[in-house]
Design brief:
Helix content: 25-40%
Number of helices: 14
Bound molecules: ligand PMT
CATH class of the largest domain: Alpha Beta
Distance between the termini: 20 Å
CATH topology of the largest domain: Rossmann fold
CATH architecture of the largest domain: 3-Layer(aba) Sandwich
Low-confidence stretches: none
Mean pLDDT: 93
Strand content: 15-25%
CATH superfamily of the largest domain: CoaB-like
Number of strands: 21
Strand order of the largest sheet: 12-11-8-13-16-17-19-20
Amino acid sequence: MLKDKTIVLGVTGGIAAYKAADIVSRLKKQGAHVHCVMTEGAQAFLTPLTLRTLSGNPVITAMFDEPKQWNVEHVALADKADFFLIAPATANIIGKVANGIADDFLSTTIMATTAQVIFAPAMNVNMYNNPIFQENMAKLKKAGYLFIEPGEGDLACGYKGKGRMAEPEKIVNFLQDLLNRQKDLEGINILVTAGPTREPIDPVRYITNRSSGKMGYSIAERAVKRGACVTLISGPTSLTPPEGVNLIKVETAEEMFSKVKEHYASNQVIIKAAAVSDYRPKFYQEAKIKKSEGDLQIVLGRNPDILNFLGQNKGKRILVGFAAETNDLQVNAQKKITKKNLDFIVANDVTEKGAGFNYDTNKVTLFFPSGEQKNLPLMSKLQVADIILDEVKLLLSNKGVS
Ligand code: PMT
């Protein structure tokens, strides 16, 4: 329940503004305190009086309004919010926030808040697909802003496609889920591995893979936000580590193995998102290999299988593996569950567009030892991370932890 939570609802100018009334009334039914901010555009579609009546609070409509009977100051509203929901969110407001423009009450307050900001976009399908808009959205997602995906169908402008604001029920459920997840992993130690490994050939060359670290870093980020104490063992990446994680940087699979062995015992949960190189050059050349006539052969030797070690020394821990597959996803992933003694495996087909290496999104299937499988649609890596952590949370509860 959203009881006693303060939700600031920003309404911007689009035909879906009328749905804001339904959102307010649903939030009020759950016992939330709702404060509405309307842009000038929003007021062309819906009157402030409607939202004032439904929320029971004055509605802010202009930057320099004199607060009348209302004693909440403008910036205080930003501080007060548990959630800051923008519904409907136009391309304009998303563009402004993404580019640091704060020129009206709503954009100013969004910039000033430390609360979780959630956008529910609504617009014409071509606007939605416009690369500039997509870039703005990606920038905000990266900065931790959340988006409730618009639906597909007939749009008010006569077009068909993606751009219809999510239904009020879905929006309110989204807030509810967010609230349920807040700090639900408090007191849990989680070890996450991320990124590629680099296996040196000589002082200037190495063997690596396409992992950017985004999947593992997303898991670490969400786990910290949900209250866990997170150790992130990361191969080389260009990512900024999430605030609050204990970051341990490694280069090679052997270094990763050594750090995992040092840290795994104090963690109740281990999630292995790293793309560990199975092989390394068997003989490291101390000096740069010089070019010569003919081919060069490099002999590769096996690297340690870290996940296998963890499976054998699992104890009561929850162990989650990943499987990066290019074919026979199900068969290959299921084999790994038993072989590595996993609680579940997150499998991605890395040949699919939007899935696997380097994308901000992923499309995964979760396979469980019981044979159960959960196919997830394409979504952001942060969302995938939350779903993995939901499963972890469930397993912890079943084991009586937390
Ligand atoms: O980093 P991104 O760009 O965001 O990309 C994400 C990802 C594709 C790297 C990620 O989603 C993923 O699939 N990670 C696992 C990659 C992998 O190595 O898969 P695998 O099927 O080869 O290995 C299976 C499991 O064994 C993995 O949990 C892996 O961490 C582990 N492993 C593998 C080899 C090894 N020597 N030791 C291991 O522990």
